[in-house]
Amino acid sequence: MLKVKHVPEQLGDVVGIPIIFTLLFTYLFGGALAGSTGEYLRFLLPGSLAMTVLMVSMYAGVGLNTDLTKGVLDRFRSLPAWRPALIVGALLGDACRYVIASGLVLGLGLAMGYRPAGGVAGVAAAIALLLIFAFGLGWVNPVTHLVTAERALMNGTATTSQIGRVVSARGLLMASHSISAPGAFLNRVM
Q: 8-13 long-range contacts, Cβ below 8 Å, gap at least 24?
């Protein structure tokens, strides 16, 4: 998060993407596809939430790659610090960005008339599922299952299998990555 202090433009995607996607798609397609913007917003908001966090998560990968190629992580590794601190710090910073982006999408949706049938508990569970997904290589995971589970959680109709698909896909991807390159990436980073 200290990077944001020095380069405030990094918050542009956290603020701009949720507002643009939610407003643009709701008012551009809402009446044409669903008959009303309110009905379309019930369908759009969970997908917009997932898409926003996925777009924001790209920054983490690009930033880590930049740090690796410029030797920043090698310099940090020479310091007397807890070795996983770099990754843990980056993950915590990303979690803050995800929560900010999620809050913007939900706040905008609520201002536009979105009322989740699942209540506060459903929305909180949907955001927790989104954070779990975002930490697990979100660009590879089956996004369709994530959006379906998010939509069901927010509407209060979620099933265990819908949530299980997202969590198990994340687990399988993480396991397959660790089998194909056991610790190579983490050893280089840490």
A: 10/59, 11/100, 13/55, 13/56, 13/59
